[in-house]
Write a sequence for this structure.
């Protein structure tokens, strides 16, 4: 069984790549959530400058390919500014600001979907805008946002595969390096694809479960 | 206690309030009546700056709310507000709705505010609904929880914005009963309402507004029996 032999030889390396992928994804998604929350809040702020900055960021990121963003941060920025990112740092940075822009829109939509009376009730009790947002609006918005949020997470996990172009040793990169040597591209890519699929499918199932939970409460 | 001077409010080109001056004394119950679109809700919402007046002054307990140095969040704690649509927080139980502000703003302990909340629930007749979520309560029950929530900050004045307008007819009475009780206890209350019977019975003073202006004000006994202004007469003839 040559097929299984190839698979089991490749597995340790691929699992190492997978763990890298998961690490990058987790770090990026945490950062993207923070970026998305603040950009989303800026987007609905009364301050014209904050609003414009957020809108510019979101439109810029959504209007350009992630691949270009990755290349720009890793190869473009260092030539002008004297910053040198490791491939890993550049990768996490690129994926974070990319997913952050989409999450900003998810946050904005989630917050705007909450009845205006909720903020008014909070303010009438004496809460500041920020505290009312934190205690009253966001807990409700986050529940509604969950499906869109997880959807964006899944896209983010898949997008980390593009980091292979700057040499980040994530799953796709490790796969490529294996079949470059043994030419078993069919077997290796099947296995790589399967690994992405398992993670993302697990997230999809989790998302449905959360959605049901939220619908009940 | 509350003094409004030459207050005007415009939304774009539309002038909703025109040069309004009113005064409310401590422990007074004032009902604001008038046709839809007369500006009565906007006037009420200007009192705690839920709407920002275009011009004029709002004085509460000797301080000018429109002075930029005034901390409006502090003032709102003394001014409870009850909304037409209840606006309870749907992700919290009745008890949590009531304890949120005292715990977070008055730094009361959970136990203290819990005791206060249960007293208030008792007062509005909902002792057994402490752990119920708003969605499982009827409109009348929700509005009574909303009143309890506003009272939890121990306000000096209560503002009611058409508190019974969104209720099924059979639930109006229970909410009015709670308000009647509050009035009896000496709470200062400003009530925008379409409940003429209630206004007549509970109000110390009735303000009739039309087209963004205060047309007439007086004791309910006088205003409902012998209104002076033609517009007041016309309005009352339609609703009484």
């Amino acid at each position: 069984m040559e097929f299984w032999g190839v698979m089991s030889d490749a597995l340790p390396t691929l699992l190492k790549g997978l763990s890298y992928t998961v690490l990058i994804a987790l770090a990026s998604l945490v950062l993207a959530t923070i970026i998305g929350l603040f950009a989303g809040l800026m987007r609905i702020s009364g301050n014209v400058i904050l609003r414009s900055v957020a809108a510019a960021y979101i439109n810029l990121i959504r209007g350009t390919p992630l691949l270009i963003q990755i290349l720009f941060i890793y190869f473009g920025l260092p030539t002008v500014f004297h910053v040198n990112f490791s491939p890993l740092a550049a990768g996490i940075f690129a994926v974070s600001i990319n997913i952050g822009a989409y999450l900003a829109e998810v946050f904005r939509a989630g917050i705007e979907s909450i009845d205006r009376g909720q903020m008014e009730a909070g303010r009438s009790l004496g809460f500041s805008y920020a505290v009312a947002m934190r205690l009253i609006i966001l807990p409700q918005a986050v529940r509604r946002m969950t499906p869109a949020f997880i959807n964006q997470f899944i896209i983010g996990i898949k997008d980390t595969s593009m980091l292979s172009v700057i040499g980040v040793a994530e799953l796709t990169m490790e796969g490529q390096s294996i079949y470059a040597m043994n030419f078993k591209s069919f077997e290796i890519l099947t296995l790589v694809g399967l690994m992405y699929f398992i993670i993302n499918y697990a997230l999809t199932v989790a998302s449905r479960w959360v959605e049901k939970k939220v619908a009940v409460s | 206690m509350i003094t409004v001077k030459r207050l005007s409010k415009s939304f774009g080109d539309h002038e909703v309030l025109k040069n309004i001056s009113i005064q409310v004394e401590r422990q007074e119950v004032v009902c604001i009546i008038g046709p839809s679109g007369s500006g009565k809700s906007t006037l009420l919402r200007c009192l705690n700056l839920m709407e920002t007046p275009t011009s004029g002054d709002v004085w509460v307990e000797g301080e000018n709310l429109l002075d930029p140095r005034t901390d409006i969040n502090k003032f709102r704690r003394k001014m409870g507000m009850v909304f037409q649509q209840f606006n309870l927080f749907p992700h919290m139980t009745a008890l949590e709705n009531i304890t949120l502000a005292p715990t977070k703003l008055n730094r009361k302990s959970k136990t203290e505010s819990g005791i206060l909340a249960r007293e208030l629930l008792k007062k509005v007749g909902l002792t057994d609904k402490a752990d119920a979520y708003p969605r499982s309560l009827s409109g009348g029950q929700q509005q009574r929880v909303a009143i309890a929530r506003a009272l939890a900050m121990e306000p000096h004045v209560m503002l009611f914005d058409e508190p019974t307008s969104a209720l099924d007819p059979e639930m109006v009475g229970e909410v009015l009963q709670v308000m009647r009780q509050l009035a009896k206890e000496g709470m200062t209350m400003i009530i925008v309402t379409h409940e003429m019977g209630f206004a007549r019975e509970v109000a110390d003073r009735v303000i009739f507004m039309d087209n963004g202006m205060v047309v007439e004000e007086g004791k309910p006994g006088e205003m409902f029996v012998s209104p002076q202004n033609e517009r007041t007469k016309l309005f009352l003839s339609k609703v009484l």
Summary: The mean pLDDT of chain B is 94. Chain B is about 40% helix and 25% strand.
